[in-house]
Amino acid sequence: MIGRIRGILIEKQATDIVVDVQGVGYEIQAPMSTIYLLPALGKEVVLHTHLVVREDAHLLYGFLSLDERHMFRSLIKISGVGPKMALAILSGMAVEEFVRTVRSNDLAALVRMPGIGRKTAERLVVEMKDKLTDWSEIASSSASLATATPSGLSDRQMSQEAETALVALGYKPQEAARVIAQVLKLNSDLNRSEELIRLALRSMAQS
């Protein structure tokens, strides 16, 4: 099991990144909550990882916080919840928000996530409640994006990157494009695709 990766961030696109560790590039999938806070390309990054072994592939998932990795591991143990859905949940909700959602039986909030129907939402609430018994109210591991260096992307470039990320998380292309256009219309000063994705996910969760 590969539990931790430390190296140089050399690629970053949507939910996929590549980290160079002494000349070996590790392809890693990560939730948007981690993508938001990654350093610039060429900088060192440390990720807590989880390896999923399948017959046709070895897939590595990375998280900046141990809380996120712990939640990811708990989620994929639930029947009907695979790594893709777990990443979508962690991309759309901070860990502490998901904990509150489960504890308050907020099925509606879960159903708004891509790929989660009513039965899956009910299963998540029932099975995750037991797993969250020992969790205290954890503080958010997310930091403000205000300190990030602007990327200087055009609206078109940001829209393309954001739509790719949302589709990778399970949203339909038409839905992703519609919400992204609405967010850009309301936030004309955006200059980072990560911030656009965050606002689009928030809008989808509230709709």
How many domain units? 3
Helix content: 40-55%
Terminal Cα span: 39 Å
Q: In oligomeric terms, what are we looking at?
A: single chain
- Average pLDDT works out at 83
Radius of gyration: 17 Å
Output the CATH homologous superfamily of the largest domain: 5' to 3' exonuclease, C-terminal subdomain
Tally of contiguous helical segments: 9
Low-confidence stretches: 137-151
CATH class type of the largest domain: Mainly Alpha
Return the string of H and E elements: EEEHEEHHHHHHHH
Order of strands, main sheet, comes to 1-2-3-5-4
Structural class assignment:
alpha+beta
Just name the CATH architecture of the largest domain. Orthogonal Bundle
Please, could you describe this protein's structure?
The protein has 207 residues and is of the alpha+beta class. It folds into 3 domains: 4-63, Nucleic acid-binding proteins (OB fold (Dihydrolipoamide Acetyltransferase, E2P)); 66-131, 5' to 3' exonuclease, C-terminal subdomain (DNA polymerase, domain 1, Orthogonal Bundle), CATH 1.10.150; 151-206, Orthogonal Bundle (Helicase, Ruva Protein, domain 3). It has helices at 32-35, 66-75, 83-92, 95-103, 107-111, 118-131, 155-168, 173-186, 193-206, and strands at residues 4-13, 16-21, 24-29, 44-53, 58-63. A hairpin with a 2-residue loop joins strand 1 and strand 2 (16-21). Helix 2 (66-75) packs across helix 3 (83-92), helix 4 (95-103) packs across helix 6 and helix 7 (155-168) crosses helix 9 (193-206). The relative contact order is 0.13.
